[in-house]
Specification:
Structural class: mainly alpha
Radius of gyration: 16 Å
CATH architecture: Orthogonal Bundle
Distance between the termini: 38 Å
CATH class: Mainly Alpha
Shape: globular
Strand content: under 5%
Number of helices: 4
Length: about 120
């Protein structure tokens, strides 16, 4: 991670609700909690329009036990390892473009049908 705002000082470990400062332990905790929340979403999907706000709600639900900022757009640019994420000024516009393209294809309708059943 590249920003002190989201990581513990002197580490690359994301600040998290349980206060875990070891990356391997955090990875396991995150996978466990997200796995459980994923199963819950399969049983009880969040209603929504499959838009940005819905995506934020899903993110918030999946990571609610791990990160206080779950479901909220970042305010700084970050990278993890060799992976770089969208630059802050472009996050929302990139997502809007993605959802616009999805709405013009069968992909979004397919996912909506999947989650409704």
């Amino acid at each position: 991670m590249s920003s002190d705002l989201y990581v513990y000082p002197g580490t690359t470990v994301l600040k998290n609700i349980p206060g875990i400062r070891n990356q391997e332990i955090l990875d396991h905790f995150e996978a466990d909690r997200m796995g459980q929340r994923s199963l819950e979403l399969i049983e009880r999907p969040l209603s929504g329009l499959f838009d940005i706000e819905h995506l934020q709600g899903v993110h918030r639900y999946l990571f609610q036990d791990v990160y206080e900022w779950a479901g909220v757009f970042r305010t700084v640019d970050i990278a993890k390892g060799n992976s770089y994420f969208a630059h802050v000024p472009y996050i929302e516009s990139t997502l809007r473009d993605l959802f616009e393209r999805l709405s013009k294809s069968d992909s979004l309708a397919m996912w909506q049908t999947f989650w409704e059943h």
